[in-house]
Amino acid sequence: MEIRKELNVGRRIPVKGYIIDSGDDITSHSHKLYITSWDGRPVHVHPFAGTTSFDVGHDHRYAGYTEPAPSGIQHVHGYHVNTSFDDGHSHVITGTTGPAIELPGGGHIHHFEGFTTVNGKTPHTHKYHGTTGSEDSLI
Fold first, then answer.
1. Cα-based distances in Å from 11 to 5, 41, 44
2. In this predicted model, what pLDDT tens digit does every residue of 67-87 receive, in sequence order?
3. What confidence tens digit (pLDDT) does each residue in 9-27 have?
4. CA distance 62 to 69
5. Residue 79 · residue 47 · CB < 8 Å
6. For the residues of 124-137, what is the DSSP string, one character each?
7. 28, 53, 77, 124: which one has the fewest Cβ atoms less than 10 Å from its Cβ?
8. Sign of CA dihedral 68, 74, 79, 84
């Protein structure tokens, strides 16, 4: 299946991928879209994980994968993950990585940083930062 997205400038970018039925019941039916190429380039993701800053007597752990981005060109990745449940609550981490940093042996990584959403009995945020792992191809 080929999906096309039209940009404001009128250029069409070919996007290929597949859709999987989530298996939900009919009242909350949904699908997941997995993109495998963008503008003819295979896409990839990066694993990322870490521990937030220690604030209000605790910290949180997080782990996930970035959103897909095209391979072979300069790019950034979006990311979104929930932290671990600690001290009676969790937080959301979301943002955009920095640009690709090439590795001497091939591949690349990205830096990321930011603040979590506000949560907790005493409302607060945590700072987080890190470097993704090297890329994983989706195809």
1. 9, 16, 23
2. 988 888 889 999 999 999 999
3. 667 777 666 666 666 666 6
4. 21
5. no
6. B--EEEEE----EE
7. 28
8. positive
Q: Where are the domains of the chain?
A: 1-39, 44-137
Long-range interactions of 97-106: CB distance < 8 A, separation 24+: 97/46, 97/66, 97/132, 99/74, 99/75, 100/74, 100/75, 100/76, 103/134
Q: What is the C-alpha separation between 109 and 79, in angstroms, rounded?
A: 14
- Output the CA torsion sign for 98, 65, 75, 116: negative
